[in-house]
Amino acid sequence: MDRSSSSDAEYPTTTRPQPSLRSSLLTTTTTFAVASKHEATATKSPDYQAIPSPTSMERHPNPRKHEQFWFHDGSVILQVESKLFRVHQTILANHSEVFAGLFEVPQPPGEHMLEGCHIVVLHDKEQDFVDMLHAVYNPSYFDTLPPTADVDTVLHFISGILRLSTKYLARTLRNRCITLFTSKFPSTFSDYTTKATSTSHERYKSDTVMHAIALARETQVYEVLPYAYYCVARMSMKRLMKEREGDVGWKDKCQCMVGRERLRWAEMSVSHSFLLVFQRASACQTLTCAHTRGPHAEWHILEAAKAPNPLRGFTRWAQLNVCKECEVHCQNIHLAGRKDVWKRLPSFFDLPEWEMLKERQKL
């Protein structure tokens, strides 16, 4: 790779058309039909697994009532795997456009019923559905997650809710999950700096980052991908060559390895260029600044690191051995360079620009 070039054209952004989130949702197949007025029926996406038709659905032979979500005044029974949930149609409909459409369609005679309620078979994971019902019935449920929760706890907390709020078009729940997701994998430079300078800064495990990428792709939360890829690109080559359960595919790993070289270029030519090619401030009155070896020595330390980290803020300003005017000048160059790296970050991994990523994930 030519490290001397700083042309934007060196890292082209992928611009081929991709379907919106609404158009990629699968038709939710249950014993109810979806009302077309809510536009819940859409084109099948390869990112989702097809749901069996009603004629091929197999109900669990001995489903049991869920201990917590069986309300005696509930108006519909939802079967998810081996559990039955007796819940309120109006409450689900208020949260989900898909359920709102399902419940408006009159049911034909002969359908499965229990205690006067129709039974609807949903092809979801039981724990995911329980998590979503907690969020639906408890307005303060998201507040039960501690502000200091680590990334593994956050991902475990939001995974089920995010999957089903995406599938059933529950916008409010999905947005709450995305807010928590981006608190760990930021999508703005200001959020990144807040996270990076926090006293509770945590180190992410490689398996956790891989899981986050898989969840983001499954639920089409694209705005977390650039920083997640950044984390993968900084992993050791030994780890990237391993193939563990839950890892991203080799195509993603190759993208990250190519991105790793681009991050090295960005560190040298954009964010930390003031070390490699030191220039005095225009207001500098100290002649010795022109001959200082401090910046170049600091660059060699940075270059020896195992992985590039162009977003990381430089802190060893005293080691530059320059006057205050030159130090402030270098700090301004450094901050502008880090912001520029953040802006370019998606393109380093052949992703669309930040704004397009956020636009594509809207319901």
UniProtKB/TrEMBL annotation:
Residues 20-31 have a biased composition (Low complexity). PROSITE patterns: BTB. Residues 74-138 form the BTB domain. Pfam families: BTB. InterPro entries: BTB/POZ_dom, SKP1/BTB/POZ_sf. CDD domains: BTB_POZ_ZBTB_KLHL-like. Residues 1-18, 42-56 have a biased composition (Polar residues). Residues 1-63 are annotated as: Disordered. This is BTB domain-containing protein. It comes from Candolleomyces aberdarensis.
